[in-house]
Amino acid sequence: MSKTASEQTFEIVFEPEGKVVQASKGATILEIARSAGIPIEGPCGGDGTCGKCRVFAVGGLSEYSDAEKKHLSVEDRAQGIRLACQARVRSDVTVEVPRTTQLIAQRILESGAGREVALDPDTKAYPLALSKPTLEDQRTDFERIKQALPLDGELRGRLSLLRTLPRILRGNDFEITAVCSDDELIHVHDGRAVSPVYGIAFDIGTTTVVGYLIDLTTGEQIGVSASMNPQVVYGDDVIARLSFVIEDEGGLQKLHRAIIAALNEITETLAGQAHITPEDIYEMAIVGNTCMHHLFLNIDPSQLAPSPFVPVLSEAIWVHAEELNLSAYPQAHVHILPNISGYVGADIVGGILASGIFDTEDNVVLVDIGTNGEIVFSAKGKMVACATAAGPAFEGARISCGMRGAPGAIDQVVFGDDVEYTTIGNARPRGLCGSGLLDVVAEMVRVGVVDSSGRLVDPDDSDLSAPDRIRTRIRAGENGNDFLLVPAAEGEDGNALYITAKDVRELQLAKSAIRSGIDILMAEMGVSASELSCVLLAGAFGNYLRKESASAIGLLPPISVEKIHSIGNAAGEGAKLALISQTERKRAAVLAREIQYIELSTRMDFMEKFTDNMFF
Ligand code: FES
Question: pLDDT tens-digit profile of 515-535?
């Protein structure tokens, strides 16, 4: 029987690897690359808006789409450049993925500032020498273990575990080690040799995943391992992931399986480094934003996309590791911290735990800046929180030369007589990440290249105080002026990097969203900027940005830079606290319930503040 048109398959060759893939007619190059495990940048998730998935392609392909005509110049098209998410195969195709489009791992922030807490984990191992049954002592095996344990209350044991008891007890002359997690006997093993009990705390970020291996008998961190979140090939931000779940049949399963695989890989790495096996992991604690939380649990997060953005679940829960196919002891308890709302997730709860702002007499703002800015204000025992859609500018997306914080990204910029910059890994400049964007715009504002409204001025503008070498970098662009940040001779692959008028506008939108969210919470608490004790910046962007630049462009309220503190990966630190302390986990559950969430879209004053805060 002959194949129908849609069933036809073609040969797609991906260079430079030379990998050959069979693909159905009508599939996009991006879809084919994803299923073949070829990592291509696709920040917008494939909806044709970011223009970052550029590839060279020759062969049978669909006509150029409107999105391609918008993002690709006539010269680009003449060279055979296509957007991978737009070009659909019609027959055999050869695709060359340029280095600038290959998805590369970004630098990952692993450490953060945490609190000292008393060690009080759920899971403990008890070496036991049990008395043997006699005609006078006919207690059951399970009863015998239960009464030997220093526990109050009931003890549960799953059928699969109960089945092992006769063999293990009698095979070891009734000398065993019982591993209990909360009120459950989860493992009984041979002998009474004291063995460490391990746990892993995971911070599941939208872009990166970090795992911390902890010895639960000492609280000591044994190892840390991190990776990119493999879901990034389906889009850089939460909105792109939600779109993928909504639009792709099986999208939820793909994203769920991807994150479980990433956690399992980290577990294997950590176990290997510590010379243990994943079966020695008896407990886990997980934090992540609400979307990551749902995807991890294989819960459909689609309803987070439209208003009113309600999650399926916010309460803290736990599951056995085997329920999620996690690489660990099958009955290991996996604790998932609670969310506060659809866009203020368990990662922020972790940050609150780690920073200790729930217990302060001061006026403290905690901000985690990403595609969404999550903000918490704490003052005298009361906490309010909000989330604000900052857009992806601080992640380097939707910026003409933007990129994630990976090797080659310009991460710091200072203007002297000319432009000075540094790149991650000291590589040739390939693009601009969020901290670099913040710096360059702050400097452009300082020397007058950008005026207070955000306009890139003309080089002969009378208010421009910039040195000549900076002034001559201003050029007429397609939509207003552009600023030449990196000449072609300096850039990777001979590419010049420009800051366009639109890039400045994207930064204005992002900084205004964050600042307006902070302003709303301050107004809610009746606190002025002069009364702020400090601003804590959590997360990667908050860690790498220059506080002076953040202050200069008005991203943060007007306070001295000495009052701005980066606290690193606070979410990960919070996950660690939740792993080693039942008290902290209970605290997290209470905090998530008690924090007052403010939905900014219901606030009439938000748009007013947003408009005001667009100015520099
Ligand atoms: S335009 Fe193709 S992934 Fe964004």
Answer: 999 999 999 999 999 999 999
Q: Are 580 and 537 in the same domain?
A: yes
Residue at a domain's end among 481, 507, 533 = 507
Q: Is the pLDDT of residue 193 over 90?
A: no
- Cα of 499 vs centre of ligand 1, distance in Å, is 20
Ligand 1 pocket, residue 40 CB under 6 Å? no
* Centre of ligand 1 from the C-alpha of residue 48, in Å: 4
Question: Could you identify the atom of ligand 1 that is nearest to the CA of residue 85?
Answer: 2
Burial group, residue 18, by CB count within 10 angstroms (0-12, 13-18, 19+) = exposed
Q: What is the Å distance from ligand 1's center to 40 Cα?
A: 10
The whole-number average pLDDT for the span 91-95 is 96
Report the complex ipTM. 0.99
Binding site membership of 235 for ligand 1 (Cβ less than 6 Å): no
Q: Is 85 in the pocket of ligand 1 (CB under 6 A)?
A: yes
Tell me which of 53, 76, 97 to substitute to probe ligand 1's pocket, judged by most ligand atoms within 8 Å of the beta carbon: 53
Please say which residue of 507, 542, 565 terminates a domain: 507
Q: Are residues 450 and 591 in the same domain?
A: no
| Ligand 1 centroid from CA 86, angstroms | 8
Average pLDDT estimate for 5-12: 79
Give the position, in ligand 1's atom list, of the atom nearest the Cα of 86. 2
Q: Residue 1: pLDDT band by 50, 70, 90 thresholds?
A: very low
Cβ of 65 closer than 6 Å to ligand 1, yes or no, is no
CA of 410 to the centre of ligand 1 (A): 22
Task: Tell which atom from ligand 1 comes closest to the C-alpha of 235.
Answer: 3
How far away, in angstroms, is 3 Cα from ligand 1 center? 31
At 605, is the secondary structure helix, strand, or coil?
helix
Q: Quick: pLDDT tens for 248-264.
A: 999 999 999 999 999 99
- Say if ligand 1 is within 6 A of residue 364 CB: no
Length of the chain, please?
Answer: 616
Tell me, using a 6 A CB cutoff, whether residue 51 lines ligand 1.
yes
Cα dist from 262 to 289, 365, 590, whole Å: 16, 32, 30
Does residue 345 fall inside a structural domain? Answer: no
Q: Looking at the 3D structure of the chain, how many domains does it have? A: 5
- Ligand 1 atom nearest the C-alpha of 42 is 3
Name the residue of 34, 41, 47 to mutate for ligand 1: max ligand atoms within 8 A of Cβ. Answer: 47
Residue minimizing CA distance to atom 1 of ligand 1: 48
Give the DSSP H or E segment for 61: strand 54-61
My answer on whether 309 and 211 are in the same domain is yes
Reading the block at residue 429, the tokens are 């400049």
* In-domain check, residue 164: yes
Query: Which residues constitute the domain of residue 29?
Result: 7-101
Tell me: do 184 and 318 sit in the same domain.
no
Residue 117 lies in a domain: no
- Cα separation values, 284 from 185, 332, 501, 566, 581, Å: 16, 7, 47, 26, 12
Does residue 567 share a domain with residue 476? no
- Both 321 and 213 in a single domain? yes
The pair of three-digit structure tokens given for residue 245, joined into one six-digit string: 């779940």
Q: What is the CATH number of the domain that holds 566?
A: 3.30.420.40
Amino acid code (one letter) for 134: T
**Residues 6 or more apart from 587 whose CB is under 8 A from it?**
353, 358
591 within 8 A of 584, measured Cβ to Cβ = no
Residue 61 lies in a domain: yes
One domain, residues 149 and 215: no
Is the same domain home to 155 and 300? no
Nearest one of 429, 426, 427, 456 to 443, comparing CA atoms: 456
